[in-house]
Every structure is written in structure tokens, then in C-alpha cells.
Amino acid sequence: MPETSAAHFYDELADDYHLIYANWDASVRRQGDVLDGLMGQDHAAVLDCSCGIGTQAIGLALRGHRVTGTDLSPRAAARAAREAARRKVSLRTAAADMRRLPFPDSRFDTVVCADNSLPHLLTEQDVHAALAEMRRVLRPAGLLLLSTRPYDDLLRDRPASTPPQVHRAADGGERTVTFQLWHWHEDGEHYDLEHFQLLSAGGEWRVKVRRTVYWALGHERLAAFVTDAGFAEPEWRMPQETGFFQPLLVARAGE
Q: Which GO terms describe its biological process (predicted)?
């Protein structure tokens, strides 16, 4: 598996992903609450097609939804299942590619693809394939909730790095420093990402570096892709409006 592939990146990150957050449990509940509010439906059948270790999927399960989580990373999906069981909520998980979802047509009320997952797909063909699959497994008028980084802003500035985030474990022990380096391609849209995690324990620091590639899809362009895939009236909702940590594209499957 190539070192920069999304599956390898998240397999390597699965055990430490929660350390990105100051309080992962609080983030799980907060994100689940926001997505639940946008859904406006109780006990919905939800597919989180990029579930990672379960941040959004567990949050929605805690709100009473019937959630299935898939992820390209088998290790991340397996951890999501363990974390859900630890919290005594039901979450079915599987390793699957969002371009080839292993579900029948019209199976779900809502599909979630959050946390900048879709931009791991680096060509129009792959993005179209994934969005077509999300549309296929949604019931008529089903809801798509898709979040990315704020790429309209990032494409203007093309930053070379993110500010470091410093967190300390709840017991006051281990500290974690996380930051990213971005290396933009000549096309000005794709970028290589190096994800650094510095972990302290017993007075010593360990450094972990994972690498992957993204496509910085601007809002208008991604909304056009969503429309082409058979969704109606895609609308971007900003963090200051929703309380979600990233811009959210909200759309309905066409009848």
C-alpha cells in the first residue's frame, strides 16, 4: 500500500486520532448534536461513508439514529466499532471504498461524508463515482451532509502549514503537539500533507509523521459536482451558523 494512500494514512493514525482533539468525547457529542439538528428526523437510517474512528457516527448513534459506518481504513473502522461498544451504542462498521459502497439502492435516509474525506479523491472521475454512490444508496429526498476544509479561503492563501495544537491528557500527564505541513502542487489545487504528532511520555518526546494527498475543491465546484450526481439545491452552511467545525454542504437526493 503506497505510503501516501488514504487507507495507509488512516491505518497509521487510527490509534492516535483522538489525540487531535482537546476532548474527543466532547467533540463526538457536539458534532453528533449539530448533525442531528440538521437532519430533523428521529431514528434515521444513516450511513457515515468515511466514519474514521467514529467521531460523527458515534455522535449520531448517541442521538438514537441507526448508524452504519464505513471507511477505507480497516483499522479506523474497527476502532469505531470498539469505541461505540464501549459507549454502549449500536454501530455497524465495515471497511469499504466510498466509490463502491456495499449496500443496495435507497437504503439510507441520510449519508454523512465529513471531516474533509471526499478531497482525498484526486480526480473528477473519482469524485463523481463517490457522489453517485452516495446518491444511489439514499432514498428519494434523502439528505447528504458533506464537510470539507474552507477551501475557498485556503485556495486564496495556499498556506504552507497549520498552527500547532497543544493538548494535555485529562490526568495532566502526556502532552500532544499536532501540526501539518502542506506542499502545493503546480496546479495550485492539489497538495501533499505531512501530519506531525509529537507525543510526550516520561519526559521523552516521540515523533510520528504520516503523509497523504488532498484536492482543494472550492465550494462552487464541489456543489456543481453534487448537482451533477443527482442532488437538488446544494447549500453551503458555515461554521458560525451551524456550530460544526467545518463548512457543511447540505443537499437532497433528487426524486
A: methylation
